[in-house]
Amino acid sequence: MEKSQFIHEPIMPIAPKPSQYGIDPSLIKKRVAEMPGMCSLRLPELFPELPDVVYPGGPDALDKFYEMAKESLRKVDMSMIKSTDSVNVLASHHGFTLFGGQPYALLLKAVRDIIHEKTGTDNIRLRAGVGMRFRETEEYIKRYGLDEYYGKGKAKGVCPVDEGIPIETEIGTLYGIKAVYDADWIVHVHHTDVREVHFHRQVDKAVKPFSMSYARLESRSTYHQNLGPRAANFTARAIFESEFVQKKFAFGAFMTVGPHGVIGVDADNNLYNINDRATFIGCQLYGKIMTLFGKIKECIAVLDFPCPVPYVFSAGVIYANFTGANKDLYDMEGTPLPPYTWYTEAFYGKDGKPLLEGIPPLNPAIKMCVHNYAWTGYPSAFFSSHIPTIVVGEEQAKLFDMEPMNIHYMDYAVVSKTTEEAMNFAYRVTGTDKVIIFDGAMGGLNCSESLAKDLIEWAPKVSKEVDEVLMPKWFGQRGVDISVLDKLKTE
């Protein structure tokens, strides 16, 4: 195919959403994907080996996904749950940001339906965890009608400052959130989106929420303050494998997603089986996008998605990962720090300089960031202090200026009245017309035509490199036997 045959009209960005963490959607007058010179690339065209997805799809795609979810869940052993038992369905906030949020909400509804169908119990509650945005899942619960679906008082958001419960583990006492574990059984409902691969390194990714979404601040902070992302991985496994949690764990149900859409549902009584399959998806499918993004030599990055700054999406990859794409985030033997992780600010002093010699800079390909639309709720001055940033609109600038975690974000950014002015400013200052837009476009990515031509040229080479060179290395570092991958893909 000629390059021009890969280039399409821009995909509709994820719509702005009302939230206390973002500006009123009515203030967003222009999406960057709508501007001249922008286009979209379809990921299955760039990488034909990507598996088929159920969503996005036709008008009945969500109905099909709901039925697929119920079919997968019916195959899981739930005999341990009696009709008089209580069950907590555990969720995490990031799932609601995937592909518009509806698929994850539907999975949570399907889990409730099949638990009731198979066991007879009506005492099924939803516990949705968060990170630093303590009220975020309360917004999602209402937005997707989960409070009504689960029943009055049975759906609630939980956060890391809620009342805790001590959990004795092989490394000592760690602390979970009491409301997460106040039932006879727990069901872990998550997703295969790689999200913070710079944290978990695709090691025990399926287990990570046990030390994040379901843990008290004292224990979840091992990722951010105490041990650092790599060393903290074992705290999640320690909590999950504790006698206390194992006696309550019934099964896991994961929304299987790739960078291009929702593939299906993976439900299993053995969480480590799900983890193996999630490792395959994270390395093979997302690994190709990560590696492709690492080939970009210069660009303007646009934030245009209803999430905090680091969590906005392009082709299933978050901006935080793109700012580290100048290094292989999957490589467990990278230098100078094996594996290096820039993302935690622990590697940088108050002067903004690396604490150790050899710490790589943020991705130097990003010449400027145009902040058209993104939320507060995560300390993001680290990004604006390292990457020239222009924020669209006084209202958005004021929101960040007044938010406790971002009082210094605007110290390093300038303000533009309109999106058009911001983009024209970025073009003039950077001297590049190559643009990548983090707007959550489903099934592909929105970008400038100039960058699209580069990505089209690089994609076949990236696919070959990941399949033949990088995946064997990545799986070898994680103890995954490549000979069983076909089995993992079909189980």
TrEMBL record:
Organism: Megasphaera hexanoica
Protein name: Uncharacterized protein
Domain of life: Bacteria
